[in-house]
Amino acid sequence: MSTDHLAIRVACLALSLLFPMAAAAQDGPIRPFKDELFSRQAVLETQDGGAFQLMDYQELRDINARDEEPERRVKSQYVETRVRRYQENQTLTLGGQRLDVTRVGKLENAAFTVIFIHGRGGDRRLGANDYTFGGNFNRLKNLAVLNGGTYYAPSVRSFDPNGAADIAALIRQAFELSMGRPVILACASMGGFVCQSVSRDKEAVRYLKGLVILGGPPDPGFLTTPAAKLKIPVYLAHGSADSVYAADNQVALYRKMIAARYPARMKLFQTGGHGTPIRMADWRDILNFMLAAR
Description:
single chain, alpha/beta, ten-stranded mixed beta sheet, disordered N terminus
């Protein structure tokens, strides 16, 4: 081997050690979908045996270069719209209340179910939009259908316990329709208050497999909740420059979880803002973590 070739190999090894790719998404039961576009994010720092990762995020690359029209329409290679043939808008009646949802995937016998809760000013259309947030919802829909799962994007009527009661009823219905298979609740931004309410519902947590918080408010009392008593896994994703909910407070909660040996993961996106986790969260990594957790 020439001296030049040896130098190149050493340099490549050094780079791989400094900036390893997020390889965790490669492992688990969920089959890949466009991983080359969504799962190859550089990790700047790893702690707690991989449970905590500081992720490389650059607005010019991850928004401007990714979108055809920044923050409005992602480039076509990031989406596969044939999944819409499995998509349906429905109005459910749960506990005497009407709940508008978009459902993608089978109604019964789903291998798993993901329920996404939008933030303030949103509705079911946000979680069903194929082109916003870098195509990340389109990828989630495709991952669900490809792997025999179901995805729900409901319109939440309020972010208080009343609105959370509707979602608790949806969790139970999804659990029953799937014959007891995993149900994962993901809450973005202000929707995190719904996750907080559900985590305190002794009945609802019985049907829940995991909680995903994307740029949401920290819950200092989480470790005392019925959800925590059941060791329901938690996946946190946050932007380090979030101006709505400070990243330091969410990191502090994560630290408490790890100190208590709680099944938790956290992805902190360096320089990312409030909406960054919705755009950048790797759904295959999330699902593999949740489905493999005991």
